Amino acid sequence: MFKNRFLIMTIDTSCKTTACGLVLDGVTIADFSVCDNKTHSVKLMPLIDKALNYCGAIIENVDLIAVTNGPGSYTGLRIGVVTAKTFAYINNIPVIGVNTLDALAHGFICGEQVLTVPVIDARNTRVYTTCYLGSEQIFDYNALTIAELCSFVTNDNKINKDSTSVILCGDGLTEANKMIIDQLLPGYNLFYKDIIAPTPASIAAIAMNEYAKSGSDSSMYTGEKLGVNYMKKYNAVI
């Protein structure tokens, strides 16, 4: 089944959800996730086993590992990235880190008049966020209050209030934050998407694009080179 085909294993522990997926030649063939009160360390390995067993695959069939490496939960990111690095090192599999915000936004980026805004809970009343107008990133990754994010939207002259649809997604969309957005962006075409974690397809697509640009050079994507983007002052290498 896997001979002469390209299999990507995706791992996401960046937010509240722990997830593992398998994407074969661009098609998701396994997608397992859990969102409960257990820690990522308890949930991740059983999900990886479940995904592989579901497809009749073994780790040796995996051609590339794609893992969200931030921003997101400090502890969650470390668990996901360390797990990905370990699999990559032991089995000599290339591994690519994927920005969580990019992966969240990926499935919604479309026409030029669509503003895609992923938001991840950063605690202390802030969210990790960025903005895409069509496929163009018009606002760099940052940690902001919802009010600061709304201020950017209203002040950016590329965003036309009357013709631009604003799509928001991510676990930073609490009911309280939605109320603030509704109050500060009156008259905008707002669409709240009920997605709190990136899909395997989005994570895999971004990783595959990066891998292809390198000419599929596995030496560029080793576990030793994979880091974590915490977007906080305690950025670290693990």
Structural commentary:
It contains 6 helices and 10 strands. It is an alpha/beta fold. It starts with 6 loop residues before the first strand and ends in a 25-residue tail after the last helix. 41% of the residues are buried.
List the main descriptive attributes of the protein structure presented here.
238 residues, alpha/beta, 6 helices
Give the helices and strands, then pairings.
Elements: E1 7-12, E2 18-24, E3 27-34, H1 40-55, E4 64-68, H2 74-91, E5 95-98, H3 100-106, E6 114-123, E7 126-133, E8 136-145, H4 146-155, E9 165-169, H5 175-184, E10 189-192, H6 200-213
Parallel strand pairs: 1-4, 4-5, 6-9, 9-10
Antiparallel strand pairs: 1-2, 2-3, 6-7, 7-8
Helix pairs in contact: 4-5
H/E element order: EEEHEHEHEEEHEHEH
Q: Biggest β-sheet: count, sense, barrel?
A: 5 strands, mixed
Radius of gyration of CA atoms, rounded to a whole number:
18 Å
On the 0 to 100 scale, the average pLDDT is: 93
**Assembly state:** single chain
Q: Can you count the helices?
A: 6
Shape: globular
In a nutshell, what does this entry contain?
This protein has 238 residues and is an alpha/beta fold. The protein has helices at 40-55, 74-91, 100-106, 146-155, 175-184, 200-213; strands spanning 7-12, 18-24, 27-34, 64-68, 95-98, 114-123, 126-133, 136-145, 165-169, 189-192.
